[in-house]
Amino acid sequence: MKSRYSVAIVVTVVVLLELISVIQFMFGRREIESEVVHRANTELRVKNLEIQKVMVAVETAINNTIWEVESMLDEPDSLYSVSRRVLMQNPIIVGAAVMFVADYYPEKGRWYEPYVARREDGILEEAQIGCASHDYLEAEFFQEGMKAGRGRWSDPYFDEAGARMMLCSYTAPVHNSKGEIIALLGADVSLNWLSNVVNARQIYPNSYNIVISRDGLVLVGPNEDYILNRTIQDITANAPDTTLQYVNRQMMSGKSGYKKIRGMDDEKKMVFYGPVDGKTGWAMSVVCKESDIFADLRRVGMYMLLLGIAGLILLCYIIYRTARSARNLRDAYAEKERIGSELRIAWAIQQSMVPKAFPEREDVDIFASLVPAKEVGGDLYDFNIRDGKLFFCIGDVSGKGVPAALVMAVTRSLFRIVSNHEEQPETIVADINESLAEMNETDMFVTLFVGALDLSTGMMRYCNAGHEEPLLVGKGVGVLPSNSNIPVGVMSGWNFKGHEARIYPGTTIFMYTDGLTEAENATHAQFGKLRLTKTARQTLAADKFDPEGIIEAQTEAVHRFVGDAEQSDDLTMLAIRFNGE
User: Which of 78, 79, 121 is nearest to 96 (CA)?
Assistant: First the structure.
């Protein structure tokens, strides 16, 4: 009877362990999929921004030069100087030309295309390349550009007469005094820059990116034989997984999304796709192999299996030794379940929180606190030290709950990504603003303060996007002056202004969200900036104005003021004390 009882316990435990492993695996897989979706979409946005920077620079160069061409129409031979100036001022452009309609200058013949090309050695070469063998009048970029009547990017093509390479061209119309379109001013850009930008980094070792034209022609891809030679439709025409054709149609129609597919090599993959914004009609996709995505999960699963086997052996030994003590066994099992449950809860909380580990350095002290009003909130703070500078931010998302938490997570991720390669806070804020404004369909915004403190000199560059002005606590208590810009996510293209100030040793920069100053007591009176400043002066008088001391004092003060009233907004504080010489 005891033997049967012991076998039943072993079988039960094995089933439970298997069930827990399956559940953990499923949740782990879902979390990893969520993470890869976020990473891939961020990669698409970042690559898109990098491509846009190049394209906008080319468009701006051409659009700002049209007036000069129109003013020199009576001097056709002087137009070379215009193209030469465009190339000298824009290194990304490999060729520039003015292409006139047929017989515009009778003395020049049917074709007149004064062209300046940048050769590999950097020399600028001038030539009139319009002729019967290079009949630009019949070229797609000329005919479609004339029809468009506005700036337009061409499909990729090989230019034998001018740049002598694969390129795409941006053209804009030139008008005469009557307002008639009589020529196109164009700039040629080599497609090598596109491949360099797209393939600069990958989110997984074996992932790759694909860029196609509006007609499906492969511009960037893992197989060099396909680039500019085959269309994506032709490559996947005989694929066994019809989802590939669906993804192709979505990309060519300018849609965004992601799908699980089985590739041409019969391997499971996830493909994320979206349009390359602008006038090109291009689309880009990020392809990740599931073997890469879930490699760590499989490895952890194997470790869990081995640990499970070891635990099972140990369990059998314990049952064998303690068969007469069923009560102790039940207590041990209950204790094991309790510890496992607490660990899972602690893990979930840890994953959802902002950084709590603060660097132990002599030149700077950092401390922060975040108390959400609900289970999740929209406040955020972050910091990053690189190249002798401390990059930090604090922000408050409009609204509360899950939507605010999602925007908070995106904003923090964008800060981490951009601050890893940008130096100026106003540039960091501008890049975050562009990404949030682009996908802001819910009209949510983020007040954001971003700073970069040079830990060797104490010089701090900062940009305030609609956030509360920080306090400086040192020899006295004052407000860090900062003319507030608009919050991020409100309007694309905003020119954010930055500021600079010297932070003297022993000074603490105290930042907070409006959950502190707008905390209400039972009578709906607010804590306010006067109480905030008074508390800061008290910490200064007590010589407890280190980051942790200031935040503890403000927390105690607001709790005394609020009393038993329910917390109505997220409460976040970030304090940084500069200790440099």
Answer: 79
Output the DSSP codes for 447-481: EEEEEEEETTT-EEEEEEESPPPPEEESSSEEE--
Q: Are 394 and 514 in contact (CB under 8 A)?
A: no
Q: What is the pTM of this model?
A: 0.44
Mean pLDDT for 418-431 is: 93
Residues 6+ apart with CB under 8 A from 458: 502, 503, 504, 505, 578, 580
Distance CA 368, CA 322 (A): 50
Residue with tokens 């860029």: 211
- Is 218 within a domain? yes
Q: Quick count: other Cβ atoms within 10 Å of Cβ 73?
A: 19
Q: Are 424 and 414 in contact (CB under 8 A)?
A: no
CA distance 321 to 338: 23
Does residue 312 form part of some domain? no
Calculate the CA dihedral of residues 424, 429, 432, 434 and round it to 10 degrees.
Answer: -100
Residue 391 β-bridge partners: 384, 452
The CA R_g of the chain, rounded to the nearest whole Å, is 31
Pair 116, 214 in one domain? no
The gap between the terminal CA atoms of the chain, to the nearest Å, is: 78
- pLDDT for 185-229, tens place per residue? 999 888 777 777 777 666 677 777 888 888 888 888 777 777 778
Beta bridge partners of 275: 283
> Which residue segment(s) compose the domain that 110 sits in?
64-193
Question: Rounded distance, CA 168 to CA 213, Å?
Answer: 11
